[in-house]
């Protein structure tokens, strides 16, 4: 058994299962570059180790094991690196997206205990899992438009594969959903009451399994019904979020009489107008892409989020308003969804690299 308790990640082999615990509870297990590298190293070591049949991952909360999965990437680091020209900003996204791809293509069961907050980068290290477990405490979202970013870490790929236009709705609004909705929207596979997680986790290391599939089947056998959904339905979402562009979506919602429609329009008006257009294009392009193609597109996009307009990054401004100055008053540019030029949106999808030199050229 190996144990790295001094790290922000605890990596151990218990019985025949590789167990990972995200161990940065005060930051809700937000991912740093060091954490991404530790995760990658552990998974690469286990991928071809016949003694490790499966992988399980969880987060430590402030009260101990479970309670928080992962709130995303470390946005304070992104702000500091983006404003100071720290090249580790580039490393972070390249390595994080490569990690996301590895999880999707791992080849062994990867069981994610998605308790508590599962947002942004937390979705990136769970959506590729073969068994994605939610609890009554799960709060799931891809809230990147709030900070002038887009749902990355493969978000284009997995959100575009939600039913109907749910992916567009989740991507543009950044809305938070609970367990039953996550299952209904194909972003989770099953429900486990939070007070039963520890027993299942402990059992993984305490018995013999014939294969990785048997490990996964054992965990799946503990899942129960998730109860009623609470999010809006496809019938509510689709008429608006199937419209041809972000301006049409916002204006149609504002013109409607329903309470949900008006509230959704008001929410969208607070998001980065530029990124609403970019994100809608991202989701729709990703529907026809492989995961590797989507991650390469997102790597292009995130480069542009920080460097397309020097001194006028929507992402740096969004993080400033939310997490640095905390004035919650980002100065978006352009300020209105109606004023975003199409050529500025298109620029996010022009790769800064020739195909052979792309940082993620090796993904397939």
TrEMBL record:
An example Gene Ontology molecular-function term: 3-hydroxyisobutyryl-CoA hydrolase activity
Keyword Hydrolase annotated: yes
One of the Pfam families matching this protein, by short name: ECH_2
Gene3D superfamilies, sorted: 2-enoyl-CoA Hydratase, Chain A, domain 1
SUPFAM superfamilies, per the entry: ClpP/crotonase (SSF52096)
Keywords assigned by UniProt, alphabetized: Hydrolase
Top-rank taxon, per record: Bacteria
Gene Ontology BP annotations: L-valine catabolic process
Entry-linked InterPro entries: ClpP/crotonase-like_dom_sf (IPR029045), ECH_dom (IPR045004), HIBYL-CoA-H (IPR032259)
Annotated ranges, domain Enoyl-CoA hydratase/isomerase: 17-349
Presence of the UniProt keyword Magnesium in the record: no
Name of the protein described by the UniProt record: 3-hydroxyisobutyryl-CoA hydrolase
Organism name: Melaminivora suipulveris
């Amino acid at each position: 058994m190996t144990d790295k308790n001094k790290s922000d990640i605890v990596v151990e082999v218990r019985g025949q299962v590789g167990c990972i615990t995200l161990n940065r509870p005060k930051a809700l297990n937000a991912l740093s570059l060091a954490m991404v590298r530790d995760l990658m190293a552990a998974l690469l070591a286990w991928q071809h180790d016949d003694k490790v049949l499966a992988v399980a991952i969880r987060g430590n909360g402030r009260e101990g094991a479970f309670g928080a999965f992962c709130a995303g990437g470390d946005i304070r680091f992104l702000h500091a690196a983006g404003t100071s020209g720290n090249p580790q900003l580039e490393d972070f996204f390249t390595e994080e997206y490569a990690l996301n791809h590895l999880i999707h293509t791992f080849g062994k069961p990867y069981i994610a205990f998605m308790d508590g907050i599962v947002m942004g980068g937390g979705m990136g290290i769970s959506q590729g899992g073969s068994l994605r477990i939610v609890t009554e405490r799960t709060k799931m979202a891809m809230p990147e438009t709030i900070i002038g970013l887009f749902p990355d870490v493969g978000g284009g790929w997995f959100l575009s594969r939600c039913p109907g236009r749910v992916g567009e709705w989740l991507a543009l609004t950044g809305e938070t959903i609970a367990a039953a909705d996550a299952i209904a929207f194909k972003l989770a596979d099953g429900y486990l009451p939070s007070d039963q997680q520890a027993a299942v986790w402990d059992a993984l290391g305490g018995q013999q399994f014939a294969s990785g599939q048997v490990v996964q089947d054992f965990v799946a056998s503990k899942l129960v019904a998730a109860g009623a959904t609470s999010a809006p339905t496809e019938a509510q979402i689709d008429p608006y979020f199937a419209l041809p562009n972000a301006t049409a979506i916002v204006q149609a919602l504002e013109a409607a009489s329903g309470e949900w429609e008006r509230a959704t329009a008001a929410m969208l008006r607070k998001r980065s107008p530029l990124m609403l257009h970019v994100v809608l294009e991202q989701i729709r392009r990703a529907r026809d892409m492989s995961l590797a193609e989507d991650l390469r597109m997102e790597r292009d996009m995130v480069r542009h989020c920080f460097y397309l307009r020097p001194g006028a990054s929507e992402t740096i401004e969004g993080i400033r308003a939310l997490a640095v100055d905390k004035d919650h008053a980002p100065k978006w540019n352009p300020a209105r969804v109606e004023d975003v030029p199409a050529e500025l949106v298109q620029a996010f999808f022009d790769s800064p690299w020739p195909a052979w030199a792309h940082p993620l050229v090796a993904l397939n």
